[in-house]
Amino acid sequence: MKYAAGDTIYENPLTDPTDVVGFKLEGDAAVTFPQGRMRMENRRDPGEGQAANFVYWCHEGFPSDIAVSWDFWPVREPGLCILFFSATGSNGQDLFDSSLAERKGEYRQYHSSDINALHVSYFRRKALDERAFQTCNMRKSNGFHLVCQGADPLPSVADADPPYRVQVMKCEDHVIFTINDLQIFDWIDDGETYGPRLGGGKIGFRQMAPLIGEYANLVVQRVERE
Q1: In the Cβ-directed half-sphere of 67, how many Cα atoms lie within 13 Å?
Q2: Model's pTM, two decimal places?
Q3: Domains of the chain (ranges, CATH numbers)
Q4: For 166-201, how does the pLDDT look when each residue is reduced to its tens digit (9 = 90+)?
Q5: Rounded-to-integer distance, Cα 145 and Cα 139, Å
Q6: Rounded to 10 degrees, what is the CA torsion of 132, 164, 142, 140?
Q7: 26, 104 in Cβ contact below 8 A?
Q8: Which residue blocks in the chain are alpha helix, DSSP H?
Q9: Nearest to residue 173, comparing CAs of 69, 64, 61?
Q10: Distances (CA, A) of 207 to 30, 31, 50, 92, 198
Q11: Cα dihedral value 147, 148, 154, 158, nearest 10
Q12: Is the preceding peptide bond at 13 cis, omega within 30 degrees of 0?
């Protein structure tokens, strides 16, 4: 199946603090712009485990069929990056609805709590086994369901030549993940094995300490089947 990324419905250069007014941070992190792009890093000691990690949500809500793309610079490792998308409350509430449990960046609060989401993990350099055999993973929540996996083409920081253009494209039941236009994986959700298909919702960036990453040129486009 072929898809077309069409009209831009959200665009953010992520160049200075005014660009992230309204974004919501869950966890403890420093968000700065020393190079004219958004730099994120943990404030807490990595020895605190999951408590040192965080998620930074865009406040905008998006429809189901979108392409989300951004420029990525890996600055310091180890660590791990994730993009959440199609994120809502498990009963269809807005992700920031006051009825939902508090979230502070700990992973279980996102995969086994009261929210639904899809999420792609990339630049997985946290655990020893992740560094020894590098993959990009996609999971579907609620539940810790690993639904798709592909080889990670990103080099370690010492050999990186960023920026890398990362894109997640979702159209109805189909998700395609690319880096610099290289397809890493695609997955079709049957709507049964891991629960009902997910629609629109919020997007958010997650990092695991002590990684430092930089981001710029966030673009969200509508997607249709050709």
Answers
A1: 20
A2: 0.97
A3: 3-225 (2.60.120.200)
A4: 999 999 999 999 999 999 999 999 999 999 999 999
A5: 5
A6: -80
A7: yes
A8: 108-111, 128-132
A9: 64
A10: 11, 12, 10, 25, 23
A11: 40
A12: no
